[in-house]
Amino acid sequence: MKTIKMAFGFYVLLFFCISACKTSPEQTKVFTQADFPAPPKAPKKPQIFTNHGYQRSDDYFWLKDKSNPETIAYLKAENAYADTVMASTKGLQKTLFEEMKGRIKEEDQSVPSLDNGYYYYSRQEKGKQYSINCRKKGSLDAPEEIILDQNKMAKGKPAFIFGGFEISDDNNIMAYVSNTTGSYAEYELKFKDLRTGKELPDKIARMAGGITWAADNKTVFYNVPNAALRSHRIYKHVLGNPSDALVYEEKDELFNAYVGRSKTKKMIAIYATSFTSSEAYLLPADRPNDAFKSFLPRQKDIQYGIDDYPDRYFITWKDPQNKNQKVYEAPKQGYEDRSKWKEIIAHDPQAKIEGIEVFEKYMVVTKRVNGLLEMNVREIASGTTKTVNFPEPVYTAYSNGTPEFTSTKFRYSYTSLNRPTTIYDYDMVTNQATKLKEREVPSGFNADDYEVKRLWAVAKDGVKVPLSIVYKKGMELNGSNPCLLYSYGSYGYSTDANFNANVFSLVNRGFVYAIAHIRGGSDLGEQWYEDGKLQKKMNTFTDFVACAEHLIKEKYTSSSKLAINGGSAGGLLMGAVTNLRPDLFRVVVAEVPFVDVINTMLDSSLPLTTQEYEQWGNPNVKKDYDYMMTYSPYDNLKKANYPAILATGGLNDSQVGFHEPAKWVAKLRDLKTDNNILLLKINMDSGHGGATGRFDYLKEEAFNFAFILSQMGISN
């Protein structure tokens, strides 16, 4: 799918400096909750739960019900309290917002991409929040055709998410998805005739976001979520037909179903995937009325992916003995006989295959080696392989996806902590990269002003954990520098060291910005991921603590100057490490945090619950319940001193319910014995990603950063 994707408060003195880049920010008093009226106090309404012979009492379970006026009243009271506490930082927030906005080129355009005779691109206009999607026929000199103006679609809506579009093979009909709830799980599918500019009457009101055209220019396959937002069904829609046909239903609650089309355009595939197993069903794209056929029946702990090629299939394969994946090729005729499969890329325990992109003459293989992404170009006929070279010791590089199967060039992006994202076309014949576009920072940016390093912390069990850090050159390592330490550490998602323009509002004020590449992600391969989930999940949290301690030991910062941040499952990380070592951190910003682990994982009606048994465990099983109870942030709160904390949420969040941060803050208010600020900020109009416009979300980021800065005593 062609998608255009876009990503802390307190009292300070009344004097705000206009400059964002003072090397010696003004130090002011750090206010505490004693300086303000009493915060909201949620009523206790105990509910008793019995699991495996244990009783749990949850005083704030009632906050789960957003249809309850008392719940909404409490959230509004918390928002009002947060605004009161943050009132004196409004000038700082405005300064931060303007800095961040100043790093965005307001009038900009993506690099055009050739697909089926048209060059597709998006552009942004000054002052507008969303993109305009365009194309040109045959040549970049051809007249521009605006196919969608997202600004018009979003007008008057409190939230808007554009999920992408797909064009029919004859280039005439566009299928596109969007929503106005702020949810990343449910979309509306519409169709537009690009010849007339008219919307077609066809409309699917609730689907999960994936669109795939068949070759007949009238048939579209799409996936639909169930009540728990698990993508479980694939339907076929024929333009003009009011009733859609169910072509696949995934009944196993651990699996999701998705549909897509090969780069060759010849094959449509349905993938049924869990976190540990997969199965593919194939259908020729020119025969949409045929039945999908299973490529290889699912097997426990085996995952595979298929890339179509004229006379064969290329298959990525993962099993317990080949966790970092290997690649096979198999003939189209008789592929069912595994003895006909040929291994072309062997398993390497030191290099995880992240994916392959197959062209007519070449295959691009992306690997993760020692925590960094590497790209190899393999000539299909000869097997000769060359490596794309990258110049820096800490970086991120990733494929942008090249639509044309016959292309001899592939497009990739390169970035690092101090290098804005740069897009290249790599010529696979000459092995030369051509720079197409570097992200422009209108307010000015000099990469050479900053130091980037890779550090290694030693975890509790002796394992070395990488950190990536950036700070201003010339900074003295004396333990007095403020620091923001970020991580995620779940689902095998690697936290790559890419360019984040916003964090320079902190770095330019003397901060060290650090990323902890902890277990639970797959930064050092698949075993790194497996060593941070299920019964080994505690490694994720102790790794993060080890990274924080290493930064302090090496004099980059001190516990009184250390802020930490994470969102969603990274919010779980924030809650867990705060319980483990509340003395280690000065400030905690937990965005849409998954903190009510036991209650959420016991409720199979909630999104993401049942299929995530393979991540966290199933609390209906005593062994899993007992282990999850050792780290569930909400269940492990106790009377203690805690850092200053800001928790955020979204009322329409489909991934982590708003009630999780709300309950966590309510319980913290009752138990904490310190006088530090504790705030809850709920976006009442949006979901998991917060505000949806390219400028509106910066206001939330400015709020978060202002919270951190003020708690460090920095007012400008």
TrEMBL record:
Span of the signal peptide: 1-20
UniProt domain Peptidase S9 prolyl oligopeptidase catalytic: residue ranges: 498-713
Keyword DNA damage found: no
Residue ranges of domain Peptidase S9A N-terminal in the record: 40-439
A Pfam entry, by short name: Peptidase_S9
Entry keyword set: Hydrolase, Protease, Serine protease, Signal
SUPFAM superfamilies named in the record: alpha/beta-Hydrolases (SSF53474), Peptidase/esterase 'gauge' domain (SSF50993)
Record keyword Signal present: yes
UniProt xrefs under InterPro entries: AB_hydrolase_fold, Pept_S9A_N, Peptidase_S9_cat, Peptidase_S9A, Serine_Peptidase_S9A
Similarity field: Belongs to the peptidase S9A family.
Name of the protein this chain belongs to: S9 family peptidase
